[in-house]
Design brief:
two-stranded parallel sheet; seven-stranded antiparallel β-sheet; alpha+beta; 4 helices
Length: 129
């Protein structure tokens, strides 16, 4: 089974457009392959030599088969700068701060967890540690 996670920014239960300039800024130095608009996907290579593919649309970044290591540092920076949340397919939603809970869709609110936006904290939460 493939693990996936989604990076979204919510307001009043609905996804809001992501700031693509911020996405480009955070991912830019890691990009191996991407179109100018990022909409055909983005392949990055982390400093620990792991490749990760992002599916991109104006409302969401999706990642499957994410590796351990530096990927989580990049993910934490993305989420923090975008003011977003992480919705993994196999764990509760991850919030940057408690105030974001009210903006999630109703079914995700109760189980959502506030996690410090660091690579190690995200990796530990997503790996179940």
């Amino acid at each position: 089974m493939s693990r996936m996670l989604f990076v979204l920014r919510y307001s009043n239960g609905e996804p809001e457009p992501l700031d693509m300039d911020l996405v480009r800024d955070v991912l830019g130095s890691y990009v191996v392959d991407a179109d100018d608009d990022l909409m055909n996907g983005v392949l990055i290579r982390t400093a620990d030599d792991r490749e990760v593919g992002f599916d991109v649309n104006p409302l969401c970044l999706a990642v499957s088969r994410f590796p351990p290591g530096q990927f989580f540092d990049i993910l934490a920076q993305l989420v923090d700068r975008l003011g977003a949340s992480v919705l993994p397919t196999d764990r509760p939603a991850i919030l940057r701060e408690e105030g974001h809970r009210a903006h999630l869709p109703e079914p995700a609110r109760e189980s959502a967890a506030v996690v410090e936006m660091t690579g190690s904290a995200l990796e530990n939460f997503l790996s179940g540690s």
